[in-house]
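note to self: dont lose this again. the chain is below, predicted strucutre after it. 396 aa total, dont forget to put it in the shared folder this time
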Amino acid sequence: MSRPVLPFDILEIVVDAAYPNKRTLKSLALVCLTLQKRATRHIFATIRFPHQNGLVGTTPLTRCETFLQLSSKNPLILPSVRRLEIMAFPARCEPLFLRIFQLVLYVNELQLGGTDAGCVDFDTISDALATAIYTIIPRLKSLTLHSTRGFPAWPTISSSHLESLLLIGSILSLPGPSISPNDKLSSLRTLVIYDSNRSWGGGKGGEELSKFVDLSGLRNFTLRRAHPHDEIYEYLRHFAKTLSFLRLCGREYALFSHGVVHGPIASWPKRTECPALRQLQLSGPFKDTASYVPWITSVVSGLIAPELKSIVLRFEVSGGTLASKFTLTDKMRHGDVWHSLGRTFSDPGFQNVNLDVRFVNPRGSGKGSFGHLGTFIRSMAVWSSMEKEGRLKIQC
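---
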C-alpha cells in the first residue's frame, strides 16, 4: 500500500504557519527539499547584524563572515532576504558589508542603526559603502533610520519609491529650498517620526519634511516625543485629509534654559479636518494627567473626523502609580480631569466611536497590576455608562 502524499500547496501552508518560529522552520527544512525551499524563505527573510554588544559572543565581523559563507553554499539564501537590519558599521566590517549590499538584490526593507549601537554617522563611513547603500534605496518599500546622522534626504530618499519611512532620533542631510515638487518622494503612505527635536531642531519639523516629501498621499502617521514648539502639529493640517490612522504621543518634552524647564506638551491646532480618519491613538504618561488629559481633550475636540471608529488612549504607568490603590490625594488630583474627559466622549458626536483605554508599564513589568486604575475610572458615572453601552474597553 502506497503512503498518502500531501499536495505541495498544503505543505507550503504548513511551513508558512510555522513562521516566525525559526526552531520549527529549521526542523521542517530537514524533512525534504520541497520543505527546505519554503522554510529557507522564512528563516532568512530578515537578516540582522547587531552591534558588538547586541548578542553575547557575537560580533558584526563574525556575523558577516558566517552569512557570506552560508549564502555561498546555499543558493536559496540570498533570494530569500527581504529585510536587512544593520545596527552599526565598524571599520573592519565595511568590506564585508559592501559585499553584502552588492549581493542582496531582493531586499525591500532596510533598517540602519539601533538602540544598542549609538549613532551611525554617514560622514564617517567609506564612500564605497555609502554608495552601495544609496544604490539599493530605489528598490525599497520601507526604510528605518534609527539614531543615524547625515543620511541624505535628497536625492537618496526623495527619488525613491518608499511606501514607509521611520525616522527615530535621526538627523538627515536636508536639501535646499529650490527642490522641484516633481523631485519629491510621492509614494509615501506611512510616516513615523520619533524625537522631532533631534531630527529637525528649532521646531521646524513640518517645513523641513515638506522639502523632500510630498505628503498628499500619506495614510498613516505616527509622531512621538515631539518638540513642544514643533510646528509639525500645525503643519499636520496640510496632509490630515488623507490620513486613515493617526498616532500621537503627548509626552512632555523638557527644554532646559538656564536651569528652567519650559513648555509642557505641544499645542494642537483647532479644527483639523480628517475626513478619512478611522483610528486615532493617543499615548502619554499617566503621572502627568493634569497636562496630558487636557491635551487629549484638545485633540479630539479639534478633529473633524466623521469616519472615526476607534480611539485608543494609552497611559504609561510607572513609579508610585503602581501602588495597589489610590490615596485620597491621588483621586482629587486625577478626578476632575478624568471627569472632564468623560464628558467630552459623552458628546453625541462620539456615539459611534469605540474607546480603548489602556494602562501599561513601558518597561514591561507590573503587568495586570493596574486594576485599581480601572476601578477608579469606573467609579465615575460618565465612564461606567459608556462601558455599559459597550463602547468602552478598559485594559489594566
